[in-house]
Specification:
single chain; about 550 residues; mainly alpha; disordered N terminus
């Protein structure tokens, strides 16, 4: 495996241990996050860009096709998380634990047993989703018969994605994020190519049904997963001799059989199921209740309600998940690092790592969310054509993305530190708050109501988790507060500057031109990045959070 951070001995250079005593956990966190962030951002951006030709080829059927796609994918997301059973996260966490104790052979045996379980889970849940499609359509899509073939097409992907997930979890357990990131990007490329070719042939060449086009678009998830599995298998085969040497030189496996492994895997996996599905549970609750609750307060047709739901539940959500994926990248990287430190009982380093993780999260997430708010108008117009309500939905969702990302990171940190039950309990509290506030918030804010209820629920969860972490591992709140204050100040300066440019440009050129919106989006994104980057480099805030290597960037740009 590729070494991430620290100076290694000759043997270690060949196999990359998860936590070298002389390596910096901050460096490992930054390098791992960089790989996962790059993979997540590129794949998310690609996953958003396909909307432009897809929407054009759907023509007047686009709103219905978009809503149908969104409903199918929300069900798929839940089955995906349940079918993988949280085992990839558990495997990553436990392999890091065993590697920290020099028990590499035990970790390998755990992985092999987990692979068998994942294959079985894929078959079972793929079959349940396929044959139970009519029931799922009744439960989650208000009985929409169009969604049945969509759900069935996604069931095929559920067959193999559990295997894909555990392969990623195995490599992440060694803090080797590069293969996971590369496979994620290639998976998205294969998926997008298939769905666009299929949609073009069905809608443009053959003038066919948009339902068939959506079915093929969702089946593309299987194509992407198959390609990604091939890439990860090649990566593991390439490193196999080195992994075997490390396994032979490690401590022997003691008193562990397959029953021990199964119990251990599922004890760690269940919390990952619930917490990884956290945002999906919120989305499914919106999907299941939105039409019924909205009808209590507004007089709207089914098509209008579908459009309202699509605006926040799919279109805005698809864009904000680009920046939420940044926090997911940090969470994936933090789990093996913190698990290794916990196994060694190093409380002071755990406290430092929690501080580093939170600082890095806010350093990236706050400017990203405010930046997306600032460029919401050209961004929405570029992807979906101008829609005043859609722009407002995206702006509101951009702010909420901070809470979604914070929940993702904090739940991963608690799980890495074996505080699984508390993490689940706090999530349940937040979800109950979401359920209780949903109806009154829709009554007050109408189509914005689900977003308001989500923000309240996620705020409750995040506050409870932060409080628990600080009680157990009193990280440096003073230092964290000072740095977050600087991040907020510089982000606001960037935000105001971009908003001013946005107002000036669209005041003179109008709202609806897509080509102009693309140009404005690129210019504003570049301007925002330059302003924020200059401020954090000039004040050395970047050095404090990212480390001394930032000095090289300052020299390149002659910033003193």
């Amino acid at each position: 495996m590729q070494v991430l951070g620290g100076n290694k001995s000759h043997d270690e250079e060949e196999v990359m241990p998860v936590m070298d005593l002389e390596s910096s956990s901050q460096d490992t966190m930054l390098k791992g996050s960089a790989w996962m962030t790059a993979g997540s951002i590129f794949s998310r951006i690609l996953g958003a860009i396909y909307i432009i030709p897809w929407m054009a080829w759907m023509g007047s059927d686009y709103p219905a096709a978009n809503a149908l796609f969104a409903k199918g994918y929300n069900i798929y997301s839940l089955f995906l998380i349940v079918s993988t059973a949280g085992i990839p996260g558990a495997i990553s966490k436990q392999i890091s634990h065993y590697n920290a104790l020099d028990e590499y052979s035990t970790g390998n045996k755990l992985f092999k047993h987990g692979l068998k379980i994942m294959t079985f889970m894929g078959v079972i849940f793929g079959a349940v989703m396929f044959f139970g499609a009519p029931v799922l359509a009744t439960l989650f899509t208000d009985g929409d018969p169009r969604s049945i073939p969509v759900i069935k097409s996604l069931a095929v992907a559920v067959l193999i994605i559990p295997i894909l997930s555990i392969l990623r979890g195995y490599l992440q357990g060694y803090s080797d994020m590069a293969p996971s990131a590369i496979s994620q990007f290639i998976e998205q490329i294969a998926r997008v190519i298939y769905m666009l070719v299929a949609t073009y042939l069905i809608m443009v060449v053959n003038k066919g049904s948009y339902i068939n086009a959506v079915v093929q678009s969702t089946f593309a998830a299987f194509i992407g997963a198959a390609v990604a599995i091939a890439i990860l298998v090649l990566a593991i085969l390439k490193k196999l001799p080195k992994l075997r040497r490390l396994s032979r030189s490690s401590k022997p496996v003691e008193n562990l059989n397959e029953r021990n492994f199964t119990r251990e895997i599922f004890e760690q996996a269940v919390p990952f199921i619930i917490l990884d599905a956290g945002i999906t549970f919120f989305n499914l609750f919106d999907q299941s209740t939105f039409n019924q609750f909205m009808r209590m307060f507004v007089n709207a047709t089914g098509a209008q309600l579908d459009n309202y739901y699509s605006l926040f539940g799919f279109q805005a959500n698809k864009l904000i998940m680009i920046i939420v994926s940044l926090s997911s990248a940090m969470a994936v990287t933090a789990v093996p690092i913190l698990s290794g430190l916990y196994s060694k009982g190093d409380k002071s380093k755990i406290e430092d790592q929690i501080s580093n993780t939170l600082e890095l999260f806010f350093f990236i997430m706050i400017p990203a969310s405010l930046g997306m708010y600032a460029v919401a108008q050209p961004l929405w117009t570029t992807f979906y054509r101008y829609d005043a309500l859609g722009v407002l939905m995206l702006q509101f969702s951009s702010v909420i993305s901070i809470l979604l990302g914070l929940f993702t990171v904090l739940s991963a940190v608690l799980q890495a530190l074996y505080r699984n039950k508390l993490a689940i309990k706090y999530f349940i509290y937040g979800f109950i708050v979401k359920v209780v506030t949903q109806l009154p918030m829709i009554g007050i804010f109408h189509e914005f109501g689900p977003l308001v209820a989500t923000s309240i629920g996620m705020a409750v969860v995040s506050w409870l988790m932060l409080r628990e972490l600080h009680l157990s591992y009193p990280f440096q709140t003073g230092r964290l507060s000072r740095r977050i204050s600087g991040i907020i100040l510089f982000s606001l300066i960037m935000f105001i500057s971009v908003m001013f440019v946005n107002w000036v440009v669209f005041h003179f050129v109008g709202n609806s031109d897509r080509i102009i919106s693309v140009v404005v989006l690129v210019l504003e994104a570049g301007l925002g990045g330059v302003i924020y980057g200059y401020l954090v480099l000039k004040t050395s805030l970047a050095d404090k959070i990212l480390g001394s290597k930032v000095e090289r960037i300052r020299r390149i740009f002659n910033i003193k």
